[in-house]
Design brief:
By secondary structure, this protein is of the alpha+beta class. The protein is 29% helix and 23% strand. It has 17 helices and 22 strands. The strands form five sheets. Strands 6-9-10-22-21-20-17-11 form an eight-stranded mixed β-sheet, with helices on both faces. It has a five-stranded mixed β-barrel with strand order 1-2-3-5-4. The chain binds aspartic acid.
């Protein structure tokens, strides 16, 4: 039943038509969204990526053959329709449809292709099972929401490219078949045929290449880079993703931040028609942890954390007193006006919730509007201590207060999570706001319990802060890095740093991370050597384009902003990948899988 175009040319897209086009002769092509046969008159909704327009087939004006063809139309048939744009009668106007004031009176019709009944509904709110949607992704992608997201994504990437270009950045592609890049995840590997027994690694990021481009004197590099990380999939991860990757020579953190801010401004202008307030606020990692219990604080609402150890160390409450004695902290938040909204059951649920963040418990206090006080700990407190605590925390009638005692970072992190939970539960978050901010001065290293050694908090190429150099040998855990993250609404958008550009310092960093001299040279010798031939000071940044799209579209799932995403378990349900390879391919690669059944 398929037909050819035979010279028919489209005059435009379906939803571009409006009252201004009334009387015009048009030729549209698209898919049948819906057919309503009223007997003698057939209404067809024709859809393309611009939207939907109503086409009318009238038996009074059409020849029999064309009308009969119109009667045969079904959902998802592909049509070419010639007709005239007409104003709808007032009674027939559809205000919910952008083209609802007009319709196209068909004069000719060609069915370019028929379609079987699709296995999913092609409508935004359809409730089909996600596995089926992913298997038929090409049909899922016909839905207006997904199409608009992909179109917006293209616009956003375009805006970034234009901006980067205007700032003198050179777009450069770096290899996909490469060597392991240490970003902290597992590598995907590709066995080599020419070098049996050896593998390439897919890049976790173009980190080393972009630094080598700085050694090469390219000065300003960027790339929309595909990166691969073999992590256990979570809702907010995909095994492959795109990031805007950039690197600059002769710069300090502020210079890189300035460029990134400009890039984000151009994105928000293109996608939302809004200008950001620049420069963006900056907060040190230490302040973020102390005030928000998170290195990616959601600053759309207040409810800051306070450390009250000194205040409660002689309160009479042995749990807090003991914590203070043991060098732990007690931290607290006040939820303004929340007392009457939190039942005993809610308090118990919140106590269970914080325990999942490895603290022993939650101390809570609520003073209802009628003056009743409910609390898990007030009875142990002296009156003065309670007064002092309430005063410090600004806790008055109607408010609730929460306290946690534990090791500093453990307590702060759990409190940060509680703060977020309450923010959602009490509806304190302005969903319309975009709060962007920089988090700076991260620790250079993190202690890895499992391997009993330090690991790089960002990556091993990050420059320590000058004033902390001396502590690299004496107190490495205290060294801060010239690194910075960009956070939007509590989500980490990207990170970057000034890099180490001296071979000896880079070697010292590798040794802090537990590499011997030989191991460091074996893995990164090419880089250590490169640094000896005149490397400029340099730094850069990378941000995830998929995540950015999630924020711009208000989606909660990365899969909704990627054309062909992997399912939760890293497989592609449409192409059925990963898949076993053929016996002769295994032989050529000299590969043998030893899989226990
Ligand atoms: N390579 C880093 C990453 O992918 C970003 C950077 O430091 O530029 O997260």
């Amino acid at each position: 039943m398929a037909e050819f175009l035979n010279g028919w040319k489209r005059t435009g897209m379906c939803a571009e038509l409006s009252l201004q086009d009334v009387g015009k002769e048009v030729l549209l092509m698209g898919w049948v969204q819906r057919v309503r046969n009223m007997g003698g008159i057939i209404f067809v909704w024709l859809r393309d990526r611009s939207g939907i327009v109503q086409v009318v087939f009238n038996s009074d004006t059409l020849n029999e053959e064309t009308y009969a063809l119109a009667e045969s139309l079904r959902g998802e048939y592909v049509l070419a329709v010639r007709g005239a744009v007409a104003k709808r009668d007032d009674a027939a106007v559809n205000e919910h449809m952008p083209t609802g004031h007009i319709e196209v009176l068909a004069s000719e019709l060609r069915v370019l292709n028929a379609a079987e009944t699709p296995p999913i509904y092609i409508e935004d709110d359809a409730k089909d099972n996600e596995a089926v949607r992913l298997k038929y992704r090409y049909l899922d992608l016909r839905k207006p929401n997904l199409q608009q997201t992909l179109m917006l994504r293209s616009k956003v990437v375009n805006a970034i490219r234009n901006y980067m270009d205007s700032q003198g950045f050179i777009e450069t592609e770096t290899p996909i078949l490469t060597k392991s890049t240490p970003e902290g995840a597992r590598d995907f590997v590709v066995p080599s045929r020419i070098h049996p027994g050896e593998c390439y690694a897919l890049p976790q990021s173009p980190q080393i290449y972009k630094q080598l481009l700085m050694v090469a004197g390219m000065d300003r590099y960027y790339q929309v880079a595909r990166c691969f990380r073999d992590e256990d999939n979570r809702a907010d991860r995909q095994p492959e993703f795109s990031q805007l990757d950039l690197e600059m020579s002769f710069v300090e953190p502020e210079d890189v931040q300035h460029i990134v801010e400009g890039a984000f401004n151009s994105v928000f202008k293109a996608a939302k028609g809004m200008e950001l307030n620049l420069p963006l606020p900056r907060m040190t990692w230490k302040n973020a942890m102390e005030n928000y219990g998170s290195d990616k604080p959601d600053t759309r609402f207040e409810m800051k954390i306070k450390t009250v150890t000194d205040l409660v160390q002689h309160s009479g409450f042995s749990v807090f007193e003991k914590a203070a004695e043991d060098g732990q902290i007690v931290c607290a938040i006040t939820a303004k006006g929340a007392a009457d909204h939190l039942s005993r059951k809610d308090m118990d649920a919140l106590s269970e919730f914080v325990k999942t963040y490895h603290v022993k418990g939650l101390a809570w206090y609520a003073q209802n509007q009628d003056g009743t006080v409910r609390s898990s700990f007030a009875k142990f407190f002296t009156e003065e201590a309670m007064d002092a605590l309430r005063k410090e925390m600004g806790c008055v009638v109607g408010d609730a207060m929460f306290l946690i005692a534990d090791k500093r970072l453990v307590a702060l992190t759990a409190m940060g999570q509680l703060r977020l939970k309450l923010g959602h539960q009490l509806n304190l978050i302005n969903k319309e706001a975009f709060n962007l901010l920089w988090i700076t001065e991260f620790p250079l290293l993190e202690w890895n319990e499992e391997n009993q050694r330090y690991v790089a908090a960002h990556h091993p190429f990050t420059m320590p802060m000058n004033e902390d150099f001396e502590m690299m040998d004496t107190a490495p855990e205290k060294v801060r890095a010239k690194s910075y993250d960009l956070v939007i609404n509590g989500i980490e958008m990207g990170s970057g740093s000034i890099r180490i550009h001296a071979s000896d310092l880079q070697e010292r960093m590798f040794s802090l991370l537990g590499f011997t001299h030989e191991e460091a040279w074996k893995r990164f010798g090419f880089l250590l050597e490169a640094f000896k031939y005149g490397t400029p000071p340099h730094g850069g940044f990378a941000f995830g384009i998929d995540r950015l799209m999630m924020i711009l579209t208000g989606r909660e799932n990365l899969r909704d902003v990627i054309a062909f995403p992997k399912a939760q378990n890293a497989s592609c349900l449409m192409m059925d990948t990963p898949a076993a390879i053929q016996e002769d391919q295994l032989k050529t690669l000299k590969l043998h899988f030893d899989i226990e059944e």
